Every structure is written in structure tokens, then in C-alpha cells.
Amino acid sequence: DIQMTQSPSSLSASVGDRVTITCRASQGISNYLAWYQQKPGKIPKLLMYAASTLQSGVPSRFSGGGSGTDFTLTISSLQPEDVATYFCQKYNTAPGTFGQGTKVEIK
Amino acid sequence: QVQLVESGGGVVQPGRSLRLSCAASGFTFRNYGMHWVRQAPGKGLEWVALISYDGSNKNYADSVKGRLIISRDDSKSTLYLHMNSLRPDDTATYYCAKELTAKIIFPAPLDDWGQGTLVTVSS
User: Is there a contact between A95 and B95 if contact means CB atoms under 8 Å apart?
Assistant: First the structure.
């Protein structure tokens, strides 16, 4: 099965900083990659799919990129409400493996 | 407005069985593939199983294959997860989730999630 590896596992940045999270697939998955945000104590929320398509209602400071094996999620200007754990997920075929998560905190 | 409400969780002894339900409303249930995703306490998300919109395609994580069975009853707009031979490492909050795209056989991103139901496997 294809493994999904995120980096870093956690990060701390200041409000207004640009933040980038990386997700790497062990084999190519084209652009079948989604990103989810899970705030503390809350359910996951779909942020992005097809690697770079913003889900409806998601702020434009979030962007995604990549194809094949390497993907990124970027927050252009970190806000306090972005404190959360972010997960990538492949969905080209089952299993729909998630990355291990990246916890984003405010410095 | 999409609503997904899980139920059936609780404390169960190792080796026993449990059935989780997910009652769906606010969308045409029979047109969407559905998934179960679990999250152990303090851990990340683990994909568990999917069933396509028409029930023709079911897939499972290796960790649950042969023990957990996904099914759906479109007449009741309800998704199920039949859990057999439960183990302590099955302890998690189980979420049902709806696919973003209607009427596709292959997996899709998950755009709506329930609040989850906690399953604790312990003697």
C-alpha cells in the first residue's frame, strides 16, 4: 500500500507568517490528494482536494500544490484560528491513507 | 444541510462484537459513497472502510479486513459498521463521512463528517 508522510510533525509560527506543510506519497498518486483541518476537540474539515482545489468556504490564504508524489499545503498569512492539526489523504484508490498529521501552533 | 449522526459506540470486551450506525439526512444518501474513519485517543486519522454509492464496491484497511464489515441501507439512509473480534487497538472515535462527489465508484474526498462515536475495547 502507498504510505503518506507529512513533514514537519509540528510547527510553531507567528501570526502573519507563511507556513508550508509537505506531504509525500511513497508512489505516484497523480493529483488525488486532499487536505483536512482538525481543530482541537473538533471534527475534521475538508480544506482542499485534487491537490489544489479549495473547498467552498475555505479562506483564500490556504493554497495547495503538487502532483505525483510531492504535495504542499501553504497558509499565506497564519491566523490564530488556523491553530489545528492538518492531515493529507490520498484517494486515488483504496485504502484512503492519511498522513500522520502536522500540528500548527502560534508562537 | 447535511447531517451525519453516529451511534452504537460504548465499552466492549476484547473478542466481542458491536454495530455502529450512521444516520444521514440533508442529502440523497443513495447517491453517495460513504466511509468510516477512526481516531484513537490523541492520535491521527486512520481510514477504515468505504462503500460505494451503489454498494458494489467495498474496501477495508488491512488492520480491519476480515473483522469489520461496512454496509448500507438506503431505505433508512443509514450506514453501518459491523465490528467483530474486537481488539484493544480498535479503541477509537469512529467517524462516518460522506464523499464529495455523487455516483462514483472510486474513492473521493470526504466533505461531511459526523461527530463520531467512541468505541472502547477493554476487559
Answer: no
Q: Is B8 exposed, middle or buried (0-12, 13-18, 19+ CB in 10 A)?
A: middle
Inter-residue contact A2 to A27 (CB < 8 Å):
yes
User: How many contacts does A have with B, using Cβ atoms within 8 A?
Assistant: 64
Smallest CA-to-CA distance from A47 within A79, A24, A73 is with A73
| pLDDT averaged over every residue in chain A | 97
- Please report, for chain B, how many H helices and E strands are present, in that order: 0, 11
> For residue B3, which of B115, B82, B119, B108 has the smallest C-alpha distance?
B115
Per-residue pLDDT at B12: 98
Question: How far lies B58's CA from each of A104, B63, B103, in Å?
Answer: 34, 15, 14
Residues of A in contact with B47 (CB under 8 A): 89, 95-98
**Phi, psi for A80 (deg, rounded to 5):** -55, -35
Is pLDDT larger for residue B104 or for residue A76? A76
Least Cα separation, residue B98 to chain A (angstroms) = 11
Q: What is chain A written as a DSSP string?
A: ---EEEE-SEEEE-TT--EEEEEEESS--TT-EEEEEE-TTS--EEEEETTTEEPTT--TTEEEEEETTEEEEEESS--GGG-EEEEEEE-SSSS-PBP--EEEEE-
% residues pLDDT > 90 (chain B): 97
CB contact under 8 A, A43 and B59: no
Instruction: Please tell me the total number of residues recorded for chain A in this structure.
Output: 107
CA distance B26 to B114: 13
